[in-house]
């Protein structure tokens, strides 16, 4: 599996059998490839503050690769009214590398602004998650923690009804 972790509040500590270890917090993204096998543990770093996060598991493009771990801090100011690619197989996106034709992008879209998402891979679909705020995609209104699966199109437009934080997960549909 390809495992992507994106924390929104608090901090999560990680340790695995490949020697990968670290603490990830809001603004960070972590990717781990289980590959041929890995043991790992995760725990809230704080005994008093909660941690909230998304952890997404994807099937890999190629099986039986070496397990690996990577994490990076991303400047959240670089995603205001535009997509910031945080996970991608394309090094030009400046995201963490993933063993799949998939991309993860974050944006902080301000009230009244529109943003287009265009697929990188033909035939992929997008799972759009509203982390906070309200947006509209076509005739569909989405609020905090709502999500929408979008397929059979290469692009779509999002309009922010109020300031919104969004995650777009582009994945193969087969």
Identify the notable features of this structure and list them briefly.
single chain; 174 residues; mainly beta; Jelly Rolls; 2 domains; 6-stranded mixed sheet; 4-stranded antiparallel sheet; 0% helix
CATH class of the largest domain: Mainly Beta
| H/I helix tally | 0
- What's the SSE pattern? EEEEEEEEEEEEEEEEE
What is the name of the CATH architecture of the largest domain? Sandwich
Query: And the CATH topology of the largest domain?
Result: Jelly Rolls
Helix/sheet category: mainly beta
User: Which percent band covers the strand fraction?
Assistant: over 45%
User: What composes the largest sheet?
Assistant: 6 strands, mixed
Sheet with most strands: strand arrangement: 9-8-10-17-12-15
Mean pLDDT: 95
Detailed description of the structure:
By secondary structure, this protein is an all-beta fold. The chain folds into 2 domains: 2-73, Jelly Rolls; 76-171, Jelly Rolls (Sandwich). The chain has strands at 2-9, 11-16, 21-25, 28-33, 40-44, 52-58, 68-73, 84-88, 96-97, 103-109, 114-118, 125-132, 135-137, 140-142, 147-150, 155-160, 164-171. Strand 13 and strand 14 form a beta hairpin. It is globular, with a radius of gyration of 16 Å. It starts with a strand and ends with a strand.
Give the topology:
Elements: E1 2-9, E2 11-16, E3 21-25, E4 28-33, E5 40-44, E6 52-58, E7 68-73, E8 84-88, E9 96-97, E10 103-109, E11 114-118, E12 125-132, E13 135-137, E14 140-142, E15 147-150, E16 155-160, E17 164-171
């Amino acid at each position: 599996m390809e495992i992507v972790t994106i924390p929104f509040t608090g901090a999560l500590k990680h340790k695995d059998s490949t020697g990968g270890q670290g603490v990830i917090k809001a603004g960070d993204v972590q990717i781990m490839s289980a590959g041929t096998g890995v043991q790992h543990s995760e725990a809230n770093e704080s005994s008093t503050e909660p941690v909230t996060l998304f952890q997404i598991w994807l099937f890999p493009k190629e099986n039986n690769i070496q397990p690996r771990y990577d994490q990076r801090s991303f400047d959240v100011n670089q995603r205001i009214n535009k997509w910031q690619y945080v996970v991608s197989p394309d090094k030009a996106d400046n995201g963490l590398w993933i063993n799949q034709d998939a991309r993860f992008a974050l944006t902080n879209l301000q009230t009244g602004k529109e943003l287009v998402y265009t697929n990188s891979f033909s035939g992929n679909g997008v799972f759009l998650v509203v982390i906070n705020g309200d947006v509209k995609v076509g005739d569909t209104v989405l609020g905090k923690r709502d999500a929408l699966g979008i397929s059979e199109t290469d692009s779509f437009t999002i309009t922010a009804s109020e300031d919104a934080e969004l995650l777009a997960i582009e994945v193969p549909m087969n």
